[in-house]
Amino acid sequence: MHFSTISKVLGILLMLFSITQLPPAIVAYIYGENEVAVFLDAFLITLISGCCIWLPVIRSKNELRTRDGFLVTVLFWTVLASFGAIPLYLLDELNLSVTDAFFESLSGLTTTGATVITGLDHLPKSILFYRQQLQWLGGMGIIVLAVAILPMLGIGGMQLYRAETPGPIKDAKLTPRITETAKALWYIYLSLTVACCLALWLTGMDLFNAICHSFSTVAIGGFSTRDGSVGDFNLVGTEFVIVIFMIISGINFALHFFAWRHRSIKHYLSDPEVKAYFFVLTSTCLITVLILFTTNSYDFAHSLRYGIFEVVSVATTTGFGTADFSVWPVFLPYMLLWLSFAGGCAGSTAGGMKMIRVLLIFKQGLREIKLLLHPNAIIPVKLGSNAIPERVVEAVWGFFSAYVFLFIALFLANVATGLDLKTAFSTVASCINNLGPALGEATVNYSNLPDASKWILSFAMLLGRLEIFTLLVLLTPTFWRR
Fold first, then answer.
1. pTM of the full structure
2. How far is CA 445 from CA 50, 123, 203, 315, 450, in A?
3. Which residues contact 218 (CB under 8 A, 6 or more apart)?
4. How buried is 390 (Cβ within 10 angstroms: 0-12 exposed, 13-18 middle, 19+ buried)?
5. 353-368, pLDDT tens digit by residue?
6. pLDDT digits over 133-180, tens only?
7. Which residue, 423, 443, 468, 462, is CA-closest to 115?
8. How far is CA 302 from CA 62, 97, 276, 310, in A?
9. Window from 118-122, 379-383, 428-432 with minimum mean pLDDT
10. Is the pLDDT of residue 427 over 90?
11. Biggest CA pair distance of the chain
């Protein structure tokens, strides 16, 4: 591996990341808050650290190899989350430990939305803005990772998606060069953010909250500026806008690119993953609304309002709330939690296993049933009219197996820290799927969990965000062997 080149990239990343400390400092200055100095200190610490890493290897000319790419990708989240935790640790208003500061920072950057901070309603605006900004930056990093970086490393949902599905994203790249691809994705991401912000503002949100919530909506993050999340605003129009943008952000950004490039929505209509995505959302919304109404939890209007919002929020792994779904009747809390395992589409800011993998697993299951009746038949797994190669089906099963085994291991580790089964199960599910909300002791937030549990859950967040294998490959002796 070219450690000098890796150090060079990491140094540049840190220097660029230091700039992100300036917007919250400006917000603090505008509102006359005392946090300006803290964000400027964090800016200088990050900038100087980046320079110290970059300067010794400034003349390195080696290109990144595949192994280097894996390491840089993992370091992108771990190192930036560590430096992103600096202002959170230094801020007196938060009084966070190192563990809590790192947990909050990583939760933001991975767009998980699990928080250890209480009393959001009374915090300075600069702190609230910084949390939302972390999610927005993380969301963009996820898009570039999923659509541009992981396919170059030969892994990830988009790699499978591009190579094996019909439609416009059959090609290897959206544009000929990765820099152009990243730029195109930035434009789409920024445009969606601006559109979401304006729509929220027009529905009655003040401009500051509209900006903050547009950040976490498009990033599918779930952080809010209020303890009661979106429900605190009690604006039906706002909730409707957020639902629309959560759905849009849960769709493959490559499809958004082609829709913009060709001024057409036909790509969405013919895409098997998008069809499955909308089928799951629609059917789950119907079940939820029906149960809420028939159990007299709410009247029909509120069953419709709360049911649709919570289903979309959890299914896309955003994690916003307008109602406490943990106290809903029958099996609804667990159904919604299981729904997060599917998540959104590949190449989106959503978490979970991704809808395309779930779709292929389902189709493979159907094929096995048919083969019981016709053991000598050759029955391919298809997406649309295209047959999927057996190697791809095997890869999906491999991913699913790793996901399940890791979930079980993390669940047992969480139980070992002293958590009850309900809390341990739901927090691992929430963090590995980058969802945020959980059940049991973590229903309100994660502040009361033991530190050991928070580190386990931080690892789960990273696993989920990096599509598991990107992180696991670093833990194998083969990776480090010359």
1. 0.91
2. 33, 16, 28, 19, 13
3. 136, 139, 189, 192, 193, 196, 245, 249, 349
4. exposed
5. 999 999 999 999 999 9
6. 999 998 887 666 555 555 554 544 443 333 333 333 334 455 556 667
7. 443
8. 59, 40, 27, 12
9. 379-383
10. yes
11. 75
∠ CA 25-31-33, nearest 5°, is 65
Residue 62 structure tokens: 């080696």
First-to-final CA distance of the chain? 8
Backbone angles phi, psi at 35, to 5 degrees: -80, 0
pLDDT at 51 over 80: yes
Each residue's pLDDT tens digit, 451-464: 999 999 999 999 99
Residue 314: pLDDT band with limits 50, 70, 90 = very high
Distances, alpha carbon 264 to alpha carbons 196, 247, 366, in Å: 21, 18, 33
118 has pLDDT over 70: yes
| Residues 433, 112: Cα–Cα separation, whole Å | 8
Give the span between the Cα atoms of 435 and 336, in whole angstroms: 11
Both tokens of 45, joined, read 């610490």
Question: What would the two tokens of residue 111 be?
Answer: 């767009």
Tokens read off for 321: 């709330």
